[in-house]
Design a protein that fits this description.
mainly alpha; Ferritin
Length: about 170
Amino acid sequence: MKNYIASEQEGEKLKELFVDGLKDIYWAEKQLTKALPKMAKAATSEDLKSAFEEHLSETEEQVKKVEKVFELIDEKAQAKVCPAMEGLIKEGEEIIESTDKGTMVRDCGLIMAAQKVEHYEIASYGTLRTLARILGHDDAAVVLQDILDQEGNADKKLTDLAESHINEAATQE
């Protein structure tokens, strides 16, 4: 893909949008490091608990990777409240509160909530990666692609868990 910006002024506006998006996802990832342990604790299936714990470790790494992107583009790492992630986390908390402990129905709800988070992150990182390339920050684009790949893998793992046994078990409750 060719790195092209029509004018310096447009490039500055695009960079502002890019940095704003980084601040947004930085806040989101930091909040997920608090939400994932709660989701793991609420999960019934050991496989789902394990998936949340593994993704917590990845998310902690992703926070550091986003900090690296800020460094690569000569910006200070700052977080900005992400209303979308705030809502998605709240939705996950509501699922925990509204489902019975120790049930696969709760696990189905947790997977649903987690996949909404993953899809938000996939959309965010895909866009940020593309903006990094357009702005000529190829090194930052590589880091963002790495995170995007991890988010895609997390989403696939959740789908596999749901399809392998959790959804089926929930129908028996």
